Amino acid sequence: MKPLLPAFLIATTLPALALAQDQAMQTIKITDNIHMLSGNGGNVGVLTGADGTFVIDDQMATEVPKILNAIKELDASAPRFLLNTHYHFDHAGGNEAIVDTGAAIFSHDNVRKRLKDGTTIPAFGATTPPAPYAALPVVTFSDEMHFHLNGQTVLANHYPNAHTDGDSVVFFKEANVVHTGDIFFNGLYPFIDTANGGSLAGVMSAVQAILDATNDDVKIIPGHGPLATRVDLQAYQDMLSIAHASMLDMKKAGKTKKEVVAAKPLADFDATWGGKLFETDQWIGLLYPSI
């Protein structure tokens, strides 16, 4: 299977391809008032109830009508709160359109900064211009933020230098549900934005913190991929740990990126993790310089 560029890069540099891969929006029920919306871009979390609709991420502007329609089909009100797990276009690209419905945006400090300033990812030659003022979060936090609504204590917790430098993971305490943002790609190699503060070691640290904070009954909304369990998250962590240790050993031995890719140290992972977002060799080539 030909590897695909991350959706936010497709959306910014290859819009025709993004349209060609159009997917219908699927609504997955997790609890009576917590749902996952899956389609183009990252997975969306939705908490509904009398206190207002709380949304986690909003994919891209073209997808917002689908998101709003899915929320309407839940007999819920328009979004009141929107939390961006990070700045990438496939998770925060719909901000301005969601704000038009009356929502206020919340995020980690660095999400607002990167949206405001624009970003570049040299590995892909991709540049994202500064976002419109209306698309910027109006409330930001440095460590954590609590929301109390619809029968839930909702904790947004920042994990530094993971997928980016502004990642938040959202815990629905009473429901035992977690939205990880792109710290977790379920069943596929993750994109790690090393040009904008991300690191493989940081992702591993964040994943371990999530594992330590959850139990076997938790339901996990990943940034990409199907609804997950703690077993899925542990399998992901095991893969990352083996990959990191292997690349670190080769880095200490003075191996070049070309030599590491040719050695195929992660060939056993091809069938499970490769061929979806990245092939194994491509993923190693992207990450090895930052190890």
SSE topology sketch:
Layout: H1 7-13, H2 15-20, E1 26-29, E2 34-38, E3 44-47, E4 53-56, H3 64-73, E5 79-83, H4 89-92, H5 95-99, E6 104-108, H6 109-117, E7 119-121, E8 126-128, E9 139-141, E10 144-149, E11 152-158, E12 168-172, E13 177-179, H7 200-213, E14 219-221, H8 230-252, H9 257-263, H10 270-273, H11 280-287
Parallel strand pairs: 4-5, 5-6, 6-9, 13-14
Antiparallel strand pairs: 1-2, 2-3, 3-4, 7-8, 10-11, 11-12, 12-13
Helix pairs in contact: 7-8, 9-11
Can you walk through the features of this model?
By secondary structure, the protein is an alpha/beta fold. The chain has a single domain (7-230), classed as 4-Layer Sandwich (Metallo-beta-lactamase, Chain A), CATH 3.60.15.10. The chain is 33% helix and 21% strand. The protein contains eleven helices and 14 strands. The strands form three sheets. The protein has a seven-stranded mixed beta sheet with strand order 1-2-3-4-5-6-9. The chain has a five-stranded mixed beta sheet with strand order 10-11-12-13-14, with no helix packed on it. A two-stranded antiparallel ribbon has the order 7-8. Helix 7 (200-213) runs antiparallel to helix 8 (230-252) and helix 9 (257-263) packs antiparallel against helix 11 (280-287). It is globular, with a radius of gyration of 18 Å. The two termini are 27 Å apart. 48% of the residues are buried. Residues 1-20 have low confidence and may be disordered.
